[in-house]
Amino acid sequence: MDAYLFESLKDKRVKCNLCNQRCVIKEGKRGICNVRENRSGILKTLVYGQLIARHVDPIEKKPFFHLLPGSLSFSIATVGCNFKCLFCQNADIAQMPSDCNGLIMGDVSTPEKVVAEALEENCKSIAYTYTEPTVFFEFALDTSKIAYEKGIRNVFVTNGYMTPEALQMFYPFLDAANVDLKAFNDEFYKKYCGAKLTHVKETLMQMKSLGIFVEVTTLLIPGLNDDENELTRMASFMATSMGPETPWHISRFHPTYRLTDQPSTPVETLVKARKIGIKAGLKYVYTGNVPGEDGEHTFCYNCGKILIDRWGFYIRKNRIKKSRCPYCEAQIDGVGLS
Questions:
Q1: Residue 334 falls within a domain, yes or no?
Q2: Which residue(s) pair with 158 in the sheet?
Q3: In the beta sheet, which residues pair with residue 38?
Q4: Are residues 189 and 289 in the same domain?
Q5: What range does the domain containing 28 cover?
Q6: How far is CA 70 from the centre of its chain?
Q7: E strands, the chain, where?
């Protein structure tokens, strides 16, 4: 089908305005994501309804810790991504078209079918995840509109590289987003992701201004983005420009894809980063991929008591009552916390 958000140029070229790569694409060629193709001067999406993944997940797996805790999320994806992260955790599907000569795989589905399956599985949300949801924007948008009418929430797990135009089009149906803030320096984004930090920061602030609930995830890679000064700047940006209520997930890296020469992140590095986030003023800072650590619980920022007791992606006890701490009555930020 025809893609959204493109403009026609001379000589049957097109400019894609869906993400901040803003690819100018010659006739017969594809953009960086490898799933949008110029056919005779018309940009086409090649992945509409071509689902490479559909699963029922705990919402905590996305991760969302302040959105409908303990609920299920119907998670879908197509192949493709507009980043080229050397440490991609889902490279087999996200980078499939780029690594396999344009190959696109997936089972045919429809927005109506996705919503029906979500309802059947008693899912409270639909997560557009695993790969970058921006590259299957048209299918996600059509699905989100139906989900919205059925009372199902829509959430993005994203690299935050969509254009302001794309976000403006989607936001009436987007309840929440977990955005990867992969580092806080331009050189890292350029070298390891093929992108620019500034656009991600702009998206984060635009999401907050539109009233979208935002959680942030940073995958800490030893020696590449775990510098204490950089983490301090990152945490300060979130606390001041986005708000101290923004949950920050600091996740452990494991060698993968094209970055197998780096060691796994030491747990003490995650603990140190969590302390940096709290010191910067963030109310909720979590450590990921290390079950059993205190950093996976939700603590009251006011009295320090454990409010949501977690093990991995699962909740053992949720003590929040009407979005308040039962011990000190502090207001706890989030959506559908109790």
A1: no
A2: 179
A3: 43
A4: yes
A5: 6-45
A6: 19
A7: 6-8, 14-16, 24-25, 36-39, 42-45, 50-51, 53-58, 72-77, 107-108, 125-128, 153-158, 176-180, 213-220, 248-252, 285-288, 298-299, 306-311, 314-318
Task: State pLDDT tens for residues 252-307.
Answer: 999 999 999 999 999 999 999 999 999 999 999 999 988 877 899 999 999 999 99
| Whether residue 230 sits in one domain with residue 137 | yes
What tokens does 259 get?
């970055």
Contacts 24+ apart (CB under 8 A), 256-259: 256/87, 256/88, 256/89, 256/91, 257/85, 257/86, 257/87, 257/88, 257/89, 257/91, 257/95, 258/86, 258/87, 258/88, 258/91, 259/86, 259/87, 259/192, 259/221
Beta bridge partners of 128: 76, 156
Q: Is residue 329 part of a domain?
A: no
CATH of the domain at 210: 3.20.20.70
Average confidence (pLDDT) over 220-233 = 97
CA distance 270 to 268: 5
State the alpha helices, DSSP H only, in 298-338.
none
Model confidence, pTM: 0.97
**Tell me, what DSSP letter sits at residue 80?**
-
**The total number of structural domains that make up the chain:** 2
- From the list 99, 116, 102, the residue with the least C-alpha distance to 31 is 102
